[in-house]
């Protein structure tokens, strides 16, 4: 009898966890604007990897290590 109660309790906790995770996912689903940004960002990163450059601003070496 005790084992059945433990199994029921664990399965109930797993179910509650699943419902909470689903609710959080629905709440934080990416919008169309975020999807468009993600697409552009990943495309920029792929192109940057091809050109061996990043899509960001180039930083001169001197500013990285002022002690030298």
The tally of beta strands, per DSSP, is: 0
Uncertain regions spanning at least 5 consecutive residues: none
Helix and strand element order: HHH
**Roughly what percent helix?**
over 70%
Mean pLDDT over the full residue set: 79
What count of domains describes the coordinates? 1
Oligomeric state of the chains in view: single chain
Main traits of this protein?
single chain; 68 residues; mainly alpha; 3 helices; 74% helix
Structure explained in plain terms:
The chain is mainly alpha-helical and 68 residues long. It has one domain (2-53). The chain is 74% helix and 0% strand. It contains three helices and no strands. The longest helix has 26 residues, at 2-27. The radius of gyration is 24 Å and the shape is elongated. The termini are far apart. The model has no long low-confidence stretch (mean pLDDT 79).
Question: Layout of helices and strands, plus pairs?
Answer:
Blueprint: H1 2-27, H2 32-51, H3 61-64
Provide a short characterization of the protein structure.
This protein is an all-alpha fold and 68 residues long. The protein is 74% helix and 0% strand.
């Amino acid at each position: 009898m005790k084992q059945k109660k433990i199994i029921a309790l664990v399965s109930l906790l797993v179910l509650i966890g699943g419902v909470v995770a689903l609710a959080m996912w629905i709440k934080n689903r990416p919008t169309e604007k975020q999807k468009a940004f993600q697409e552009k960002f990943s495309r920029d990163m792929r192109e940057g990897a091809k050109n061996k450059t990043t899509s960001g601003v180039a930083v001169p070496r001197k500013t990285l290590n002022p002690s030298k």
